[in-house]
Design a protein that fits this description.
The complex is a heterodimer of chains A (345) and B (339).
Chain A: H1 10-17, H2 22-46, H3 72-79, E1 87-90, H4 95-101, H5 105-112, E2 130-131, E3 136-138, H6 145-158, E4 165-170, H7 177-189, E5 193-199, E6 202-203, E7 206-207, H8 218-222, E8 228-232, H9 236-251, E9 257-262, H10 280-287, H11 291-301, H12 307-330
Parallel strand pairs in A: 1-3, 1-4, 4-5, 5-9, 8-9
Antiparallel strand pairs in A: 2-3, 6-7
Chain B: E1 2-5, H1 7-21, E2 25-29, H2 36-40, H3 45-49, E3 54-56, H4 61-72, E4 77-84, H5 92-99, H6 102-105, E5 115-120, H7 135-140, E6 145-147, H8 152-164, E7 169-174, E8 189-192, E9 205-208, E10 213-217, H9 219-234, E11 239-243, E12 246-248, H10 252-262, E13 265-272, H11 277-289, E14 298-302, H12 311-317, H13 321-332
The complex binds thiamine diphosphate and magnesium ion.
Thiamine diphosphate sits between chains A (92-93, 140-143, 169-173, 198, 200, 202-204, 269) and B (30, 59, 61, 83, 87, 90).
């Protein structure tokens, strides 16, 4: 299913095939680090006040938090193909997509903290993030991303502006009727749509084997005459290669593509989920495929970056994340009267 | 008897006792095995009855709700978990066009003995798509019974009644009453009989007797209204608190009798204010008690805005004890105290 880890001789070829070069990979490395550190900082603040007794209602961040630690490569590789005018519709697990799409981490953090400086003035929360200037939004309703991205794709086609729409989803979401319905319409109308399925093997506590009649969803895309890729979601080069083809096809008027990236979330479905439905060994096995350290090792093997360069990239990413969290923490909460405004435009 | 913490173990016990008796009762829904439907409504059932009868479905609400319709039409008694009520948009067609109507439209040929259990309520920061009540939408549609328990005792007994009912029933379990770890808990530990028992539909419960004002509430709002009533007593206001228990069928008689006694009615609801439960309750009460009402009926409900995320915003829209106290004072003509 996965390609073998590229050998030293194969690696430059694969990288070139993917349209990547040293600068692009260093940039991807930094962006993945930014997402990782950002999410770790969010996790840290989320647990403030919750460690003695877990209670979603207390602490500086309330409600649910869905981290994508381990899945950064998919978001970064896909969004590297996009411009600000391309649309991304994401899911309940959205931090990595948002940051990869260029959404300001400070305003993202502020929204997660429920602050008035947040993306949505504190009204949305992490499952309802909206950034109009980055053409980004998500939903806490599983399966909602496909038709909405298809709608953006329809709009782009109609307005003839060569933009592309991307729907991110989990593998669990693809069992929803919206996936099948969207495949049909997208193929029928040849929409500039890329559906990216992050197959992290679980939908909440439900393993894939308990919920899917096919091993992979890309098989279903093919039944609609939609080209589809199955890629190693822990390998940024592999995702990049498929994503580039998919986005180029869409932009050039050749219709939709499905990219299914096999990956793994290192944390629970939500923070507070002890994950008793997976074994420790399984988690540790996947942790060895960590997309960030994997890329770091390759950059070193290619002698494109030494320890010092990588450390500097990590440091600058961490500084940006720290600044984002600081901004969020120091921002004011919204005035309660705002609760009653903004239902209608 | 033993102590139970919350409505979730009470509901799962009722399902358990029904499954033991009725081989054609199965549980369908997302994460009903490992998580017990997230909040524990189906906890422990898979261990006892296996995956043949407690079935994790794919994330496909429209289809598993439709499965319940088809299975009920052919001799089964499905219990369906709709994880959060806010997901009803993904399956409402199967509920209101089929589950609710098939018995009537078939001229009585097809019964729909389906029990839907769903989690409702906000107050812990889960925002716009995971915090709603929405029972007014279900109650609006003819053919669906609507159960809104506020105590573990009622939750078990009303669920037992739901499971025995030949009609579709939706049991709304308030998250802040489930007793589930991770959720704030506003209920209290209760003595709940281990033996099976049922609580009839259509019978409201007077949780506290009073003479000055009638407070009508459901689920979590019953708890908050009782707390408000205790504070009102300090001001010399005697509030009667009525727990509606089932919206469909609705016990109008108890509500009207209380309204006729006190002359003043405050409706407290965590569902949206307009065109819903409070409006219907007010209609029924005035129809039977108009000549005895000494003031217009008032309500405290979620104003017509989606549930906001940020804590001060969320707090501003979900009815609080203080708000209930203030409204009751206003209704009885006692000025609100500062703060
Ligand atoms: C319509 C709907 N049904 C159920 C849920 C509850 N839920 C939230 S996330 C989730 C699992 C999603 O799994 P997957 O699509 O694989 O994404 P992942 O969490 O693995 O990223 C479920 C069942 C929901 N939010 N919306
Ligand atoms: Mg998944």
């Amino acid at each position: 299913m996965w390609r073998p880890e590229p050998s030293d001789t194969d690696l430059p070829f694969r990288i070139a095939e993917a349209g990547l070069d040293r600068d692009a990979l260093l940039d991807a490395y930094r962006r993945m680090c930014l997402i990782r550190v950002f999410e770790e900082a969010i996790r840290d603040r989320y647990w403030t006040g919750k460690t003695d007794e877990f209670n979603m209602a207390v602490g500086p961040i309330r409600g649910e938090i869905h981290l994508a630690v381990g899945q950064e490569a998919v978001a970064v590789a896909v969004c590297a193909q996009l411009t600000d005018d391309d649309a991304v519709v994401s899911t309940h697990r959205a931090h990595h997509h948002a940051i990869a799409k260029g959404v300001d981490p400070a305003r993202l953090a502020a929204e997660i903290f429920g602050k008035v400086t947040g993306l949505c003035r504190g009204k949305g929360g992490e499952m309802h993030l909206f950034s109009r200037n980055k053409r980004f939004f998500n939903s806490g309703i599983v399966g909602a991303s496909y038709p909405q991205a298809a709608g953006a794709a329809f709009s782009f086609l109609y307005q003839e502006d060569r933009n592309v729409a991307v729907a991110f989803s989990g593998e669990g979401a693809a069992n929803h009727g919206t996936f099948a319905e969207t495949l049909n319409i997208a193929a029928l109308w040849q929409l500039p749509l890329v559906i990216v399925i992050e197959d992290n093997l679980y939908a909440d506590s439900t393993p894939k084997w308990a919920a899917q009649a096919t091993n992979h969803h890309y098989q279903r895309a093919q039944s609609h005459n939609i080209p589809a890729y199955l890629v190693d979601g822990m390998d940024i080069v592999d995702v990049h290669e498929a994503a580039r083809d998919a986005v180029n096809r869409a932009r050039d008027g050749y219709g939709p593509t499905v990219v299914e990236a096999v990956c793994y979330r290192f944390r629970g479905h939500f923070e507070g989920d002890p994950g008793g439905y997976r074994t420790r060994e399984e988690v540790e096995l996947w942790e060895r495929l960590d997309p960030i350290s994997r890329l770091a090792r390759r950059l070193q093997r290619l002698e494109w970056a030494d320890d010092e360069t990588l450390t500097e990239l990590r440091r600058s990413a961490a500084a940006e994340a720290v600044e984002a969290i600081r901004f969020a923490e120091q921002s004011p909460l919204p005035n309660p009267v705002e609760a009653l405004t903004g239902v209608f435009a | 008897m033993r102590m139970l913490r919350g409505i979730a173990p009470a509901i799962s016990e009722a399902i358990d006792q029904e499954m033991a008796e009725s081989p054609n009762t199965v549980v369908l829904g997302e994460d009903v095995t490992y998580w017990g439907a997230v909040f524990g409504f189906t906890a422990g059932l898979q261990e006892k009855y296996g995956r043949d009868r407690v079935i994790d479905t794919p994330i496909a609400e429209q289809t598993f709700m439709g499965l319940a319709v088809g299975a009920a039409a052919t001799g089964m008694r499905p219990v369906v978990s709709l994880m959060f009520v806010d997901f009803l948009g993904t399956c409402f067609d199967q509920i209101y066009n089929h589950l609710a109507k098939n018995h009537y439209m078939s001229g009585g040929q097809y019964r729909m003995p389906v029990t839907v259990v769903t989690a409702v309520g906000g107050g812990y920061g889960d925002a716009g798509q995971h915090s709603e009540l929405l029972y007014g939408l279900f109650a609006h549609v003819p053919g669906i019974k609507v159960v809104v328990p506020s105590t573990a005792y009622d939750a078990k007994g009303l669920t037992a009644t739901a499971l025995a009912d030949p009609n579709p029933v939706v049991v709304f379990g308030h998250k802040l009453l489930t007793g589930h770890p991770g959720m704030p808990f506003e209920g209290e530990e209760e003595d709940v009989p281990t033996d099976p028992y049922s609580v009839p539909f259509g019978l409201a419960a007077i949780r506290r007797a009073g003479i000055d004002v009638t407070i009508v509430a459901t689920a979590l709002m019953v708890r908050r209204s009782l707390e408000a009533a205790a504070r009102l007593a300090d001001d010399g206001i005697s509030a009667e608190v009525i727990d509606v228990r089932t919206l469909v069928p609705l016990d109008s008689a108890t509500l009207v009798a209380s309204a006729r006694k006190t002359g003043r009615v405050l409706l407290v609801d965590e569902d949206y204010a307009s065109f819903g439960t409070t409006g219907e309750l007010a209609f029924r009460i005035q129809a039977g008690a108009f000549d005895r009402l000494t003031a217009p009926i008032r309500r405290v409900a979620v104003p017509d805005v989606p549930m906001p995320y940020s804590e001060p915003l969320e707090r501003a829209v979900i009815p609080s004890v203080a708000q209930i106290v203030d409204e009751a004072r206003a209704l009885t003509g006692v000025p609100a105290t500062a703060g």
